[in-house]
Amino acid sequence: MPALSQLLLPTAWFAEAPAARQMPRTHDEDAKRRRFEADILPHLDAAFNLARWLTRDDAQAEDVVQTACLRALRFFDGFQGGNPRAWLLTIVRNSFYTWIGQRREQEQETSFDEEVHTAERAAGDPELELLRHADAELLRQAFAALPLAFREVMVLREVEGLSYKEIAAIAGVPIGTVMSRLARARRHLQAYLLAHGVGGRP
Amino acid sequence: MSCIGDGERREVQITAYLDDELDLTSVVELESHFERCPACAGELAAQRALKQAIGAADLRYRPGPDQVRRLRRQLGGGQAPPAWRVGPRLRAVAALLLVAVGSWTLGRRWPARPQVPGAERSDGNAGVAGEAGPDASPLAEQVLASHVRAQLAGHPEDVASSDRHTVKPWFGGHLDYSPPVIDLAAQGFPLRGGRLDYVGGRPVAALVYQAGNHLVSVFVWPADGPGAAPTVRTGASPTGAPAAGGVPPAGAAVASSRRGFQQLRWTQAGMAWWAVSDVAADRLDDLVRALRAELPPAGPR
Prior knowledge:
heterodimer; A: Arc Repressor Mutant, subunit A; 11 helices; 68% helix; B: 2 domains; seven-stranded antiparallel beta sheet; 39% helix
């Protein structure tokens, strides 16, 4: 009875219920699955990257991506075209916040060293050189040290190369907020690099 | 002369300026302001230095092969094709077979050599920049699939070297033609290496470049091969200077996008070229422009 299986399957599929998997699938579902594989799966790398930066942990990133992909498949009917990568990243981000909410393991949020002292910021040539030659390892540490709200916009911008508009949509904030978070994130990064970079203060 | 704002507002403006997110009027205003205001110019220099370092570093985390396997298996549910359950090596073989069958079909549609060599290269498409939407040619799908597969398998290059004197001879030993190999590190796109791929019914060279945190695959094969069909004639100006008529130098390359990936294809130096990446379209454009400037112009054939 196709109507019934259509009703049941979308949720039953992922409940790890072996019985559900054995049920006959309709053509619609197969077509949907194929579209999902073609449109969404190529962006698994981007999904993992964002989850990894948000959780700062390999195994937890995998958990988040797993949850996100299952949700993505379930809600794939609601995907209206547009940029599939941005769509998947939105789901990854939401999955992460659900996950962190459950663990309620505080991120120290935006409170962290709010005032980075201006004097520590780049001024002369040596500082510029230091910033310019910061290596990947140091940059990773600096990114990881960013408060969550800054880290996510920074990763979406600098690693995923998304536009302010796309980032605003993913993070669910106005573009102005994206801009000011990026600016403050960069100030944090500069301060971190100057303090921890070669030749910087310990 | 008052400054554009103190502290935060200035930083936000400069951030958006460097990210190319300001409207033209603000850009012009800001640029003239930088000339007059040492404080803002200093801030600009610092932010630019930081951005440069970030752009040169690879900050992307990639899932390990085991993680990819687990994720895909779970998504596949009970219906996953058996190939996903086996090791990466078998998976690659299966993928290759699939491509081979696909290209055999393709080969039947496009004879290996056009009957009038070069005829396709002078078709009416020359100079068309930026086709909207996906490229309809089956090759577009093949090169995209090849790029994605190499990344998912965590194996973007067969020979990992930024030295073109290592990469070029390596290709020489594996192909019946010798692709131009050019490092673009000076232009901000370091060469990571090369790999062999199977596209359009023949083994082809893929050069792998780093563009910030993204990888770019640049496929190259002789222009009179099977891939010649969908390509267009190169523009007159590979030098990076705007060509006559205001057509940008990459104007003769055909751009398309599908599923969040950008593609650019063109012919030059007797070769057909396809660049594929999930990097932003303008960055891919920059890379292709830089690459084309290094290649000899396509002479009349």
